[in-house]
Amino acid sequence: MLFAYIFGGVLLLVLILWYKFAYAPYQVFKKVGLTSPPTVPFFGNSLDIFKLTDTVAIEKWMKIHGKVFGYYFGARAVVAILDLDMLKEITIKQFDNFTERRKGDSGFMYVLRKKANVATGLVHMDKKNWKRVRPITSPTFSAKKMRMMVPLIEKSCHTLDEVFSDISTKGNSTELFRIFGHFTMEVILATAFGCQVNILKGEGNSLTEAAAGIFSGTAITGLSELLCSQIPFSEKLFELFFSNGSKITQDFATLKSVAMEVIEQRRQQSSEASENKNVDFLQLLMEARADDDTGELGPGSKQLTDDEIIALCTTFLLAGYETTSNLLAFTAYLLAMNPDKQEKLIQEIDKYYQDHKESSLYDAAHSVEYLDWVLHESLRVYPPAPRTFRICENTCTINGVTIPAGCYIVIPIQVLHQSVEHWEQPELFRPERFSPNEKESHHPMCYMPFGAGPRNCIGMRFALMEAKMCLMNLLRKYKFERAPDTQVPLKTRIGVTQSPADGIFLKVLLQ
Ligand code: HEM
């Protein structure tokens, strides 16, 4: 009798587990007639994603299931969309139903932020808060405001020049991804945290260490999302595991306390003459700040709390540092591998300076058209953000496809950029694709390195300005050359961003 009870109990438990982890989550697409690859209990299709990366897995599934299909990341239902008209509906026309990108109030990063008391930044912000905060933040990225930050970027460009001068005399190949990483870290810490650091010259401090620590922590976000999708109490486990004393929690806390200190200092200096004022994101966001810092601002409020300012600056660091260093490193690689294109760019730069001897770096960087094409083509070949997401708020039907409420939509940027349907010989680096004549012939939705619609990358203008100034300064003097240890073809690592898997080894030569 006892045996029968135990057997019955075990059977019931197995049935419940099977229903919870192997059956119920995987009915979403069947109900609306969307095809999806076969699932593995608990994991859904995530094992393929861990093995291949989502970009490669989507390319593989697309060949079987077409331009719109579903897959499961753990228990999370994700719809992959490669149909350009549908993408336009989702990112632009029906934006109000697809405003959110990812659930900001779950996962490993959320737990860390919560522990360090750092609020959610723009990237993961929910619809209500995003609708209030984005319009306040957007003006800080206007062309006029960006220009005010030029001196901060120029400073790091000059230091980078010294580093390159040193490298070029040695004549051997150098790993450039790390160096560009130091450059973009310096720039973002100066512009977002108001802190002048000299990482390019090998000087670190608690802030640079904290920023680097947070980046190493993002490596486990995929696994944490899988657990959170299946097991609701996973966050509690993370909270226990990453105690207040853990390194990464401390790193978040360091960023917060540095930013808080700078805010306090600036407030004390606020009575000083306005020409002494620092102009950086922190300052611009502070000027949009509420006097009454209760944190209870209404939906129409045009002001930010201190917590929101710090969360935004942390987001700028997370979203802007690695993406821009990837762009610079990939561009250097592509120029070295395509010497004719590099030669043309150098000639265009020389020609510009012959006619404008006294030009500022900013003006030069924005006047040489070919540099713009080169960067756009580099972003097409190796998009630093290889995908982005939206969440479907209410069940809807677009172009005959029903998308259930709560589903994530993945926009596979990298796959779109490499599609033979949209690009002739997509594997070739051909900046001329972005000349005014050719540009018109592309559907706007097949190229979106900075995303699309009202929730696109807020830092696009800043990233392009920084990359242009950096390359313009370097290519006046130096050129990149393939070395015996340059990896061909280049292997990339696709995590939160796409980066060179083993660095970028190139020679840097004086022209
Ligand atoms: C080459 C460099 C960069 C690339 C390729 C890039 C790419 C992207 C992409 C694809 C998105 C998602 C857009 C969407 O879902 O439609 C995004 C969002 C975002 N990016 Fe960038 N980004 C870059 C640099 C920066 C910089 C320098 C900053 C800040 C200073 C920044 C801040 C942000 C923020 C805050 C968001 C979220 C916007 C929102 O949800 O309203 N990014 N970026």
TrEMBL record:
GO terms for cellular component: endoplasmic reticulum membrane. Keywords: Endoplasmic reticulum, Heme, Iron, Metal-binding, Microsome, Monooxygenase, Oxidoreductase. Pfam families: p450. It comes from the Eukaryota. One of its GO terms (molecular function) is iron ion binding. It is found in: Endoplasmic reticulum membrane; Microsome membrane. Its cofactor is heme. InterPro entries: Cyt_P450, Cyt_P450_CS, Cyt_P450_E_grp-I, Cyt_P450_sf, Cytochrome_P450_3A. Cytochromes P450 are a group of heme-thiolate monooxygenases. They oxidize a variety of structurally unrelated compounds, including steroids, fatty acids, and xenobiotics. This is Cytochrome P450. It comes from Amphimedon queenslandica. The gene is 100637203.
